[in-house]
Every structure is written in C-alpha cells, then in structure tokens.
C-alpha cells in the first residue's frame, strides 16, 4: 500500500492530466485514426451492446459491475474503443462504482485511441480508489506511449513504476525494446535488454514464486538468452533461504553448464544451504570430490588461493582425486588474481596428471588470457582447438569476440561471428550484445543497428 500511495502522488504530478469527464460524448477521433488498427466495426454489434448496457442501467436493481464489464470487455476486444468509453461515462453519470477490471478495460480503450492523457487520468482514478493496477494494465499504458511515438516518456514511466515496487514481465520489456528500436533509440534498447532477466526473476523471488522463476530461467536458456551471474545469484539465494536445496543445486548445474562463473555472492548463498566440510566431518559425513571442489571454488572466488591449494593437497591425502572441475576452479581463481603464468603452469600440470581439459576449461583459459593481456597466446589456443578435436561452443566464440572487441579489432570480431555460424554454432543474445555494444562505442552505428534488427528477427529479443 505504501508503494501505491507513493506512486499515486507521482501519477498526479504528470502534466496535462484531464478528468475523464473531459472526453466528449462524440469523440473527434475517427475509427480510421485509431492506433490499434482494425476492421470497420459492425454498427449492429455496437447497437446491441449499447442496448444491453442501457437496459441494465435502467433496471430497478442495478446488476453487479461484472455484468457491465463483460460488455465493455467485449467492445474493447473487438476494438470498438469509442463505444466502450462512452458507455463507461454513463456508468460514471449514474454513480456506479467501477471495479479495477472496469478501469483496466477503459485504459486499454484510451490507449487504443491514442488518448494517453485520458489513460493516465484513469490510472490516477485507480490509485484514488485504492486499487492496484496489474502488470497487464501498466504494460498497456507503456505500449500506448510507444505507439504514440512517446518512447522516452515510456522509458520514464517504466523507471518510475519500477521505483515504486511494481513489476513488469517479458511482454512489457519486449514492447519497450521494440519501441526503442523502431524510434532509433538502439543504445537505450541494449541497456533495457541487459536489465530484463534480473528484474523479472527478482520480482518472482520477491513474491515467493520460485517455480515460476525457475520456469522463466529455463525459458531464457531455451531462447539462447544467457542469464548473468546476478540473475542466478538472485534465484539461488532465494531457494537456499527457503530450504529448497535440491532446486538450488539444479539451478547451479544450469549455471555451470552455461559457463556462468560463480562469484562470492553465489557461495555465500550456497553456504547458507549446504554444510561446510568441517561440519560434515563432525557428523561423520565423508566429503567427496564434489564437496571439495565446491569449497575450492568458493575459496578461489574469495581470493584465498593459498587456502584453496591446501584443500587440493588434502584431497589427495584423503584419497579424493581432483577432477577437471577442481582444476578449472583453480585456473579461474589464478586468472582473476592476475597470475596468468601460474595458471598456465597449473594447466600443464593438470594435463601431465592425466586429466584432459574440456571445452569449459578452455573457455576459462582463453578468457583469462585475453583479460590478462595475453592476446597472442589466447588466439593460439583458440586456433588449436579444432586441430585437437574440440568444438568451440557459443561461450567460446563469445569470449574471443569480446576479447577482439576490447582490442578494437571489430572487423576480426565480425568475421569470427560469421565464421561461427558457418561452423554450425549460432550466436546467442550475449554474443550479439557484446559486439553491438562495441560497435556503438566505436561510432559504427549503422552496423550496430543492422545487427540489432537481425537479433530481433531471429527471436533473440521477444516483443
């Protein structure tokens, strides 16, 4: 309620609000001028709806508002917006209190006619009546602003709504991003794109809707939209706090498979849900390779590399062999601590001990080398992958493309993006975002916009 009260004040401050009574009975907006285009309405349908509505109004005992909503909703769905708003005015004249459904229908009609001032007026009425607008209603207003060409106002409206505790869904973001793209605000579209996953999943976790959050995560992965570490952390933290350890482990597995690096926040969340090694031993539980590897990764993320190496020695002493995951964690930690030479030594030591690196390990190696300025070495290892029988995945290509972009080698990055498709590996949303951002930063706006349109046409950005 506090959020609603604060937002209500903000809504009243929006300029040029008009009371709903300002809408004249015979609106000057013609059917052909509607922003939501439709076939010419059947006059008979409208007449029948008006007759039914009028009869209900004249009844001695007024029917419940839901009956009026059915007629208004039917007119709205068939895009008879003018008629629906006119009938709503009659409700107001008779003093019949509308429900939140009534007002949401009227907002849809106002947006359909491009009458955004009136739409905001109805939204203000929603808050005055202590109702809470839902995501669909707020998205309708946002879409209306975009269709009217007021995309910047749509962005401000989006930011204000979020600031007051309301949440949007993926339909909202698709609407906003497409509106930004169509009006040339491509840089702003990229910024919104980067905020989508965390915002949606955070909202679901906040409401305790963890199943829906996991479903959304799965849907994003299927669409080749890779959630970032913050998105995964939000979900893992919520699941651990709820004691849903099995679900948290499943999300962690997806996170690892996607090549998203765990950070200190991830491990802080996991430690809330898992027993630490010492606690396990006190309960006569024997830590296995997975347990030790998890601890080593956590120590590495906390920059306690010496402690991590000590745990590695204890693993050998207690008969728990290190595996590729263990070494990959240590490699990642060493690169993050700007120790590429030690990381390369460890990599060679791992191979000498009979453990073959997988593509995930090579991704860590190439990424670490690029980030530590070892460009030549990173390129050599990447070029040797196919010779050694490894097939680079989308994460591998994206790492190299990012490295090339950081070095200003945009032509090489674009060529590699084309090559990855020739090799049967399609770029995902992260790949596109990486190169699009670099192109914008280097003033290559035409190329960036072309890739953004391509990204949308491939369904990597839903709208």
UniProtKB/TrEMBL annotation:
<feature type="repeat" description="PPR">
    <location>
        <begin position="323"/>
        <end position="357"/>
    </location>
</feature>
<feature type="repeat" description="PPR">
    <location>
        <begin position="64"/>
        <end position="98"/>
    </location>
</feature>
<dbReference type="Pfam" id="PF13041">
    <property type="entry name" value="PPR_2"/>
</dbReference>
<dbReference type="InterPro" id="IPR011990">
    <property type="entry name" value="TPR-like_helical_dom_sf"/>
</dbReference>
<dbReference type="GO" id="GO:0003729">
    <property type="term" value="F:mRNA binding"/>
</dbReference>
<feature type="repeat" description="PPR">
    <location>
        <begin position="428"/>
        <end position="462"/>
    </location>
</feature>
<dbReference type="Pfam" id="PF01535">
    <property type="entry name" value="PPR"/>
</dbReference>
<feature type="repeat" description="PPR">
    <location>
        <begin position="358"/>
        <end position="392"/>
    </location>
</feature>
<keyword id="KW-0677">Repeat</keyword>
<feature type="repeat" description="PPR">
    <location>
        <begin position="288"/>
        <end position="322"/>
    </location>
</feature>
<dbReference type="Pfam" id="PF12854">
    <property type="entry name" value="PPR_1"/>
</dbReference>
<feature type="repeat" description="PPR">
    <location>
        <begin position="134"/>
        <end position="168"/>
    </location>
</feature>
<feature type="repeat" description="PPR">
    <location>
        <begin position="393"/>
        <end position="427"/>
    </location>
</feature>
<protein>
    <recommendedName>
        <fullName>Pentatricopeptide repeat-containing protein</fullName>
    </recommendedName>
</protein>
<dbReference type="InterPro" id="IPR002885">
    <property type="entry name" value="PPR_rpt"/>
</dbReference>
<feature type="repeat" description="PPR">
    <location>
        <begin position="99"/>
        <end position="133"/>
    </location>
</feature>
<feature type="repeat" description="PPR">
    <location>
        <begin position="169"/>
        <end position="199"/>
    </location>
</feature>
<comment type="similarity">
    <text>Belongs to the PPR family. P subfamily.</text>
</comment>
<feature type="repeat" description="PPR">
    <location>
        <begin position="228"/>
        <end position="262"/>
    </location>
</feature>
């Amino acid at each position: 309620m506090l959020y609603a009260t604060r937002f209500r004040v903000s809504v009243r401050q929006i300029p040029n609000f008009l009371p709903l009574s300002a809408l004249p009975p015979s609106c000057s907006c013609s059917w052909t001028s509607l922003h939501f285009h439709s076939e010419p309405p059947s006059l008979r349908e409208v007449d029948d709806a008006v007759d039914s509505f009028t009869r209900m109004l004249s009844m001695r005992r007024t029917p419940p508002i839901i009956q009026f909503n059915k007629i208004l909703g039917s007119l709205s769905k068939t895009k008879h917006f003018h008629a629906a708003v006119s009938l709503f005015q009659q409700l107001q004249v008779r003093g019949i209190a509308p429900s939140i459904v009534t007002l949401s229908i009227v907002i849809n009609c106002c947006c359909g006619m491009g009458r955004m001032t009136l739409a905001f007026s109805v939204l203000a009425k929603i808050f005055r009546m202590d109702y809470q607008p839902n995501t669909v209603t707020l998205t309708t207003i946002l879409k209306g602003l975009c269709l009217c060409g007021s995309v910047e106002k749509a962005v401000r409206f989006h930011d204000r709504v979020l600031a007051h505790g309301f949440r949007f869904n993926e339909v909202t973001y698709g609407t906003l991003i497409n509106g930004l793209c169509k009006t040339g605000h491509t840089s702003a579209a990229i910024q919104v794109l980067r905020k989508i996953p965390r915002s949606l999943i955070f909202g679901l976790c906040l409401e305790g809707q963890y199943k829906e959050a996991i479903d959304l995560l799965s849907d994003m992965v299927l669409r080749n939209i890779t959630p970032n570490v913050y998105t995964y952390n939000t979900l893992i933290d919520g699941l651990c706090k709820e004691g849903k350890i099995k679900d948290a482990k499943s999300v962690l597995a997806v996170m690892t498979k996607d090549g998203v690096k765990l950070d200190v926040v991830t491990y802080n969340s996991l430690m809330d849900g898992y027993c630490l090694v010492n606690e396990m031993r006190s309960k006569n539980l024997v830590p296995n390779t997975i347990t030790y590897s998890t601890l080593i990764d956590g120590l590495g993320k906390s920059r306690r590399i010496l402690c991590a190496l000590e745990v590695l020695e204890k693993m050998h002493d207690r008969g728990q062999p290190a595996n590729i995951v263990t070494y990959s964690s240590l490699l990642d930690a060493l690169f993050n601590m700007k120790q590429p030479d030690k990381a390369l030594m460890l990599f060679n030591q791992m191979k000498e001990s009979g453990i073959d690196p997988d593509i995930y390990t090579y991704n860590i190696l190439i990424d670490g080398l690029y980030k530590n300025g070892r460009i030549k070495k990173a390129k050599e290892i990447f070029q040797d992958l196919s010779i050694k029988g490894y097939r680079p995945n989308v994460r591998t290509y994206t790492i190299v493309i990012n490295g090339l972009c950081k070095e200003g080698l945009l032509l090489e990055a674009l060529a590699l993006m084309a090559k990855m498709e020739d090799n049967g590996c399609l770029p995902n949303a992260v790949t596109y975002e990486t190169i699009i951002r670099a192109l914008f930063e280097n003033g290559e706006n035409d190329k960036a916009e072309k890739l953004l349109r391509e990204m949308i046409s491939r369904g990597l950005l839903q709208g």
